[in-house]
TrEMBL record:
This is Large ribosomal subunit protein bL25. Residues 6-91 form the Large ribosomal subunit protein bL25 L25 domain. Residues 185-195 have a biased composition (Acidic residues). Residues 185-206 are annotated as: Disordered. InterPro entries: Rbsml_bL25/Gln-tRNA_synth_N (IPR020056), Ribosomal_bL25/Gln-tRNA_synth (IPR011035), Ribosomal_bL25_b-dom (IPR020057), Ribosomal_bL25_C (IPR037121), Ribosomal_bL25_long (IPR001021), Ribosomal_L25_dom (IPR029751), Ribosomal_uL5_bac-type (IPR020930). Pfam families: Ribosomal_L25p (PF01386), Ribosomal_TL5_C (PF14693). Residues 100-180 form the Large ribosomal subunit protein bL25 beta domain. GO terms for cellular component: ribosome. The lineage of its organism: Bacteria, Pseudomonadati, Bacteroidota, Flavobacteriia, Flavobacteriales. This is one of the proteins that binds to the 5S RNA in the ribosome where it forms part of the central protuberance. Part of the 50S ribosomal subunit; part of the 5S rRNA/L5/L18/L25 subcomplex. Contacts the 5S rRNA. Binds to the 5S rRNA independently of L5 and L18. It comes from the Bacteria. Belongs to the bacterial ribosomal protein bL25 family. CTC subfamily.
Length: 206
């Protein structure tokens, strides 16, 4: 899994007044849980651009101004309801010997037979929640849809890997090929045409 570094400043004052002052200065107050102690820090809002505004998932190295670095993953983020500015971010510290739970983007490969025959691929999940060691987790989970015909579904069990455990129920559908509306309309028109032809060929009653 990809990692990015955020240079941050550890903060001692965590009250509302200090937090408001940080935000007014363009800083985002953050917290890291999961370690021996809770760590409070702040960093410029722009520093989180490549972490927040992307479909990709990253682990994060929080490089504090006291010389220490902490490996973490984003756990929760709060946005301003009007301006959408980042108000607060929670991180969870990660360790080499402890598995983490995280949602990883899902992508398909191949061209589904059902889509080639006029069907439409519908997604039920865009991200797959898994548990595993950060060093073994992929940047993206890929599912082969080549053999999916109209009416077929791809389940989370089809994405199983030795590197992680999928946390969804086994019967969870990731994507499926469904009949498109246009195909249905064409079939209906053909059926109506056939019925009309049958009626025209039927002998008149005496």
């Amino acid at each position: 899994m990809k990692s990015l570094t955020i240079n941050a400043s550890q903060r001692e004052s965590v009250g509302k007044k200090a937090t408001k002052a940080l935000r007014n200065a363009g800083q985002v107050p953050c917290v890291i849980y999961g370690g021996d102690t809770i760590v409070h820090f702040s960093a410029p809002e722009i520093a989180f651009k490549n972490l927040v505004y992307t479909p990709d998932v990253h682990t994060v190295v929080i490089a504090l101004d006291n010389g220490t670095s902490i490996n973490a993953i984003l756990q929760d983020i709060q946005f301003h309801p009007v301006t959408d500015r980042i108000l607060h971010i929670d991180f969870v510290e990660i360790f080499d010997d402890k598995p983490i739970s995280i949602e990883i983007p899902f992508k398909t490969e191949g061209a589904a037979k059902g889509v080639l025959n006029g069907g439409v691929l519908r997604f039920n999940l865009r991200r797959i929640k898994v548990k595993g060691f950060a060093s073994k987790l992929p940047d993206v989970i890929i599912g082969d849809i080549t053999n999916l015909k109209i009416g077929n579904k791809l389940y989370v069990t089809d994405l199983a890997s030795e590197d992680f455990t999928i946390l969804h129920p086994d019967n969870t559908v990731v994507c499926q090929v469904r009949t498109s509306r246009n195909v249905v309309e064409v079939e209906d028109e053909e059926e109506e045409g056939a019925e009309g032809a049958d009626a025209a060929e039927a002998p008149a009653e005496a």
